[in-house]
Amino acid sequence: MSLRRKLFTVAAAAVVVGGVGVLLAQREYKSGVVWPEPPVVTPAPVDKPGAPPSDAIVLFDGTAESLAKNFKNGEKWIVADGAATVKGGSIETKAKFGDIQLHLEFATPEKVDPKQTGQGRGNSGVYLMNRYEVQILDSYENKTYFDGQCGAMYKQQPPMVNVCRKPGEWQTYDILFESARFDADGKVTKPAVVTVLHNGVCVQNHFELKGGTFYDRPAKYEKHEPTAPFHLQDHGNPMRFRNIWVRELKPIVGKEPEKKPGEEKKSGD
User: Would you say residue 65 has pLDDT above 60?
Assistant: First the structure.
């Protein structure tokens, strides 16, 4: 066997063995960032999807006591069989939140009045920070304007798909929300962003809000505090809610590596 053939065979063998030979010759990249260890969170049991993980703040556990404790006006809603039915006005969280993961379950009225169509059927909403509405509506075989149907960011963005269940059936919202950021003059430095999973299906994917959601005027940002309550709307329909919890989203922050003397000068050369 010629020398060239021997060298080719050895090189090929190094590649064939899972690329080990090649990997051993490479130098591992290390960012140098010192990361704190992520905390351990126990997720919901496999047989209880939607149950709160161990670090969740439970706002409604199916009892009237929890609804009244965590929501302003919560004592007015009717609580029975682990669910709260809308009555007597919207309810607002007593606590304030910024960036959150929000889970809730809702059911539109099972008995449908044929006279109620469009926005008049199974209407409610989740108002994040009391100003950014994720629309709740009975959109099962019920036509309305697309940026006002269930799963829409009201008057700003329709859902990518309609995954509504039949009237009376329980449905889920899992919402990831990042609050807007403002500078000292009230200028937006980072728009609010929302991702919505409706019944486990993504209907809003990292959508950048154009401002507050309004019925009678265009979206517009108004400077607000980094945290604020959210509320569930009473729109005149006997909507039901259950299993409401939130998680505050706090990214892990690492310590950047210290630059060696003269490193900045070299990078600018």
Answer: yes
In the prediction, which pLDDT does 36 show?
A: 94
Please write the tens of the pLDDT for every residue from 8-18: 555 555 555 55
Residue 33 to residue 30: CA distance in whole angstroms = 8
Query: How many domains is the chain built from?
Result: 1
Q: Is the separation of the CB atoms in 209 and 156 below 8 Å?
A: yes
Asked if residue 157 is part of any domain, the answer here is yes
In a domain, 210, yes or no: yes
Distance CA 119, CA 135 (A): 10
CA separation (Å) from 192 to 1, 20, 177, 184? 67, 45, 7, 17
Of 185, 183, 166, the C-alpha closest to 226 is 183
pLDDT, the chain, mean: 91
Q: What is the CATH number of the domain that holds 105?
A: 2.60.120.560
Reduced to 3 states, what is the DSSP secondary structure of residue 146?
helix
How far, in Å, CA of 40 to CA of 58, rounded?
Answer: 18
User: pLDDT digits over 121-133, tens only?
Assistant: 999 999 999 999 9
Print the domain residue range for 211.
57-248
- Type of residue at 87: K
Say what the pLDDT of residue 38 is: 94
Average pLDDT over every residue of 167-186? 97
In a domain, 228, yes or no: yes
* pTM of the predicted structure, to 2 decimals: 0.86
Residues 6+ apart with CB under 8 A from 25: none
Q: How far apart are the first and last CA of the chain?
A: 50
